[in-house]
Design brief:
It is found in: Cell membrane; Membrane. It holds the Pfam family POTRA_1. One of its GO terms (biological process) is FtsZ-dependent cytokinesis. The chain is α/β, with parallel strands linked by helices. It has three domains: 39-66; 75-144, membrane protein fhac (Ubiquitin-like (UB roll), Roll), CATH 3.10.20.310; 147-279, Rossmann fold. The chain has ten helices and twelve strands. Strands 6-5-4-7-8-9-10-11-12 form a nine-stranded mixed sheet. Strand 9 and strand 10 form a beta hairpin. The longest helix is centred in the first third of the chain and has 40 residues, at 31-70. The protein is elongated, with a radius of gyration of 43 Å.
């Protein structure tokens, strides 16, 4: 059997190619290696500068915010009232409890509390939203409740009757009221006013828009009196007026002068007396 011939290889010669390749890769004079190192250094420098910039920016913002809060600019300088022309602005500010030592940010955080406090103090106010101008000038934007009409008081003055049946806190002159809303006269008891308001709310809108006066000066608790825009007077029963008012248009078209239209029991009319005209504030 022939012996297998064994060829000897020099290990150094075998490794020389690999060692030459590694030495080239690690050689700083190698253009590829230099480019990679520069790119890596640039990325690290950029990341460092970015982190440093964020830290500086955050610190400056914190210092500015802190400086603002400890300065007088953070305090409430003035309070302006918008949306409630008939209400007394000074009384609103006083009722809110806000003062010059309060922080502007604090007023925003307590917005709901201010709204509840002012709504309790002034029946006319439904809600309050707070805004600012020039950093520390606080504005109370007031939304008022819907006005149904006006209740007459002494010396030709009036108060608003609100959608929830409450009476407004402010006294108004005849020039300040909305002439398109009905006036309620002769209502000294709030219970009587509430009952007639309930009846008024159940009338058709077309009829509501024709009523200029509602009188509480009735002969009986179950009686109700309307003065219409055409100066006709409608008398009805509190339990049936909502269903009988539909006959008003037909009856009035047959009249030649302002009259009393009685719908309490049947349906008939008669001319107005001078005393009734004066009592119900109907111009001659």
């Amino acid at each position: 059997m022939a012996k297998e011939k064994i060829t000897k290889k020099d290990p150094k010669k075998q490794l020389s190619g690999w060692l030459d390749y590694r030495s080239k890769e690690n050689n700083p004079n190698n253009p590829k290696v230099s480019a990679s190192l520069k790119k890596l250094q640039a990325e690290r420098r950029h990341a460092l500068l970015t982190r440093l910039g964020v830290i500086i920016f955050t610190s400056v913002c914190f210092i500015l915010i802190l400086g603002y809060f400890v300065s007088p600019k953070a305090n409430v300088a003035s309070v302006q009232i918008k949306g409630a022309p008939e209400l007394n602005s000074s009384q609103i500010v006083k009722a809110s409890g806000i003062n010059s030592q309060d922080k502007v940010l604090g007023t925003f955080l307590k917005q709901k509390q201010y709204s509840q406090k002012l709504s309790a103090a002034f029946p006319e106010i439904e809600s309050v939203k707070i805004s600012t101008s020039h950093l520390n000038n606080v504005i109370f934007n007031i939304k008022e409740k819907k006005v149904i009409g006006y209740i007459s008081e002494k010396d030709n003055h009036y108060r608003k009757i609100l959608a929830n049946g409450k009476v407004g806190s402010q006294t108004l002159s005849a020039k300040e009221i909305d002439k398109q809303k009905p006036i309620f006269i002769g209502y000294n008891k709030r219970a009587s006013l509430k009952e007639d308001l309930d009846i008024y709310s159940k009338l058709p809108v077309k009829v509501q828009n024709q009523i200029k006066v509602m009188s509480g000066e009735t002969n009986r608790p179950t009686q109700i009196i309307f003065v219409m825009n055409d100066n006709n007077v409608v008398i009805g029963n509190t339990s049936t007026i909502a269903s009988k008012i539909k006959y008003y248009e037909k009856i009035k078209n047959q009249l030649k002068q302002p009259s009393v239209i009685d719908l309490e029991i049947g349906a008939f009319s008669r001319p107005l007396s001078n005393d009734e005209k004066n009592r119900l504030r109907i111009a001659p």
